[in-house]
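Progress narrative, work stream C.
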Amino acid sequence: MKRLISIILTALALTALSAVPAHADYSRFNLRYIWLKEGPKAGGGSACVEQSISLGGTYRWRAFTKSGDHQYNMRHDWNNNQRDIDIAPGVYTWRDCITQRNGYYSLTASLKNDYIDYGTAYLTGKSLYVYNGGGWFTFGSTLEPLI
């Protein structure tokens, strides 16, 4: 009898595992922690973070900058910009760059399918002004699945 129960439980566990979706439903983060100086100049360069990611579905995409190393609770950050985006299933290059402008920084996030040319989707963050000589900042974007 114990063997029969063990077989049934194993079968149920395998059935449950096969029902797991190919794309997990959890928020993704593409972040970088960096020192930014006060008073940047246009042409001074960019800092980027990039990853390859498997996506598919509808997401809320948020671009943000935050003083300090605050990767938690970014979806409620005060300095973010967001939009909802439908993404065809596939593998994408996800890139976030912060660029020096005259007196401030700009943030651009992008998603590009690695195998099919759908074009590139962009999201821009709000302008970031740095004071008091500079400081450590977290920048990047998040993708939160919408159900």
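Work stream C, second folded protein:
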Amino acid sequence: MSYTSKLFRGAALLIPLLCTGTLLFTCTLLFSSTLLAAPLVIPILSDYPIDTELTSQTLNGNVLHALERHSGGQFEFKPQVMPQSRAWKYIEENDACIFNQIKTPERESKASFTKFPVTLYPPIRLIISDGDRRWPTVFDPQAFNLPPNVQIGTVAGHSYGTRLDAAIAAHPQQFFRRTGTESSFRLNDMLVAGRIDAVLNYAVAVQVYLDEHHPGFKFNALPIKGAEQGVEGFIVCSATDAGRDMAALINGVFAQKAMQADFVRFHQQIYQGSEQSWLGSEFRRLKLPEAE
């Protein structure tokens, strides 16, 4: 039985207790209307606080706010900050969703992903301090052509794609795995302080954070062989009837032209220069009509 069906069944059982006599029909209509009007609360987990003060640079907050708004009161998100590794265990035992997750076959086998991505990122890069000459011009994860004894920051529980995940597993001594909340932010701080040598991240995400917290710090973003494609972030929900219902509601809202127009606008506000060309190709691949 689906989550929505359970709600209606529960309501049907309660109605006789609340309404009797000739008022039953009227009361039933009122009770049903109240039930239909109440939005479904969707717990949404992330390992960093999702912005509530929205600007042109708050991509994640903008997308979630637009999904709520375009749902017409069908649902509302309840953000919760939780470490990545714990969040995946949480949705196995509770009806909830995680924001901004990469699809992998393993993950798809145990959770319900939304049909549409909610965020688009350019290819992931190896972020190093500007002026650090030890590194190759292109990082090859398979050959692992890196200087010895370097420490590369990663977020525990994150997937970086097949090639990078394999390299991390094969060379664990050269990867520092940060746990806890706001891990990607703390890794940026560690790079600035010289406590690690590099981080795996998206250049635009690093730039936005550094502009606010370390405006004088300069970095280079090295390309990674085999990671030339952009990265899609999805909402993933529990593999239960309730989780599938949550994902289906989100899919229905994202299929709306108005939501897609907002999606396009939010991303165009973030990406500039050469990334605009990449972004246009992503819009066309996703068959977004505003990009045609």
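The longest strand covers residues 40-46. No further action is required on this item.
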